[in-house]
Protein: Oligopeptide transport system ATP-binding protein
Organism: Actinoplanes lutulentus
Amino acid sequence: MRSDLLTADGLTKRYGRFTAIEDVSFTLRAGEVLGLVGESGSGKSTTVRCLVGLTKPDAGTVSYDGEPLQGRAAWHRFRREAQMVFQDPYASLNPRMTVAEIVGEGLRVHGIERTAAGRRARVTTLLGQVGLDAGDLDRYPRSFSGGQRQRIAIARAIAVEPRVLICDEPVSALDVSVQAQVVNVLRDMGRELGLSILFIAHDLAVVRYLCDRLVVLDQGRIAEQGTREQIYDNPQAPYTRSLLAAVPIPDPAAERERRHRQKESAR
Ligand SMILES: Nc1ncnc2c1ncn2[C@@H]1O[C@H](COP(=O)(O)OP(=O)(O)OP(=O)(O)O)[C@@H](O)[C@H]1O
């Protein structure tokens, strides 16, 4: 298996005279969780849209599994093997479909489970994997909380046995108290199924214990990229440092130490 699974190479996108992203290059490797982090307007969505073919970049290429993403066959394969979890759990699930239909649709479309009974059994297993249960099969999205809806969206995504999950701010719309639970479901699923995950976030706190490596975007350009240890313990770019400074630290002793270091470095 290749270790480089999904690669953005020199992606640039302009809207009129405004450059939304410029020369954005990074690689999602097999089996890793890669964070794409930056403030609102830094170009995260534009990058994702270019990656998944919703926006045509003005320059740059996207490769999947070592081949440029070009032509119908390549895109067809990519669309099955790379699944998305979106930000808004209230908009991303069809309100007229039951959970069994939502999660089972991909199984039907891709011919993974050809019978209704087979799909129901498979959906029951998938719901169990994300912490829901068989009693939820015939319920509609409106009767679930935001966190539960994201669990349904994750079940839908993993149903078609993808290699890649692209999670576009999947916990940003959720209460802080449930964010960690959904992040944990993604982490556990990723490990169990050997998935590669691209996790988009505007907040470095959310991805701290999830990502193996991070790409930090600032005003459409990559400020820096590196391993979790490099980014959190030894950030090089001033922009990364300012993002980290905005991260609340739950440990009061660590917070005192951080303030002390900040004062020292400001002298
Ligand atoms: N269709 C468009 N037309 C014009 N400008 C756009 C368009 N889409 C995005 N932009 C601009 O490009 C820049 C990057 O936007 P993008 O949505 O990629 O950022 P983001 O990091 O995803 O922000 P957010 O977290 O708020 O979604 C922003 O300044 C935005 O206003």
Q: What stands out?
A: The beta strands are 4-15, 18-29, 33-37, 59-64, 67-68, 82-85, 164-168, 196-201, 213-218, 221-227. Residues 15, 18, 20, 38, 40-46, 202 surround adenosine-5'-triphosphate (CB under 6 Å). Residues 4-95+162-266 form a domain with the Rossmann fold fold (CATH 3.40.50.300).
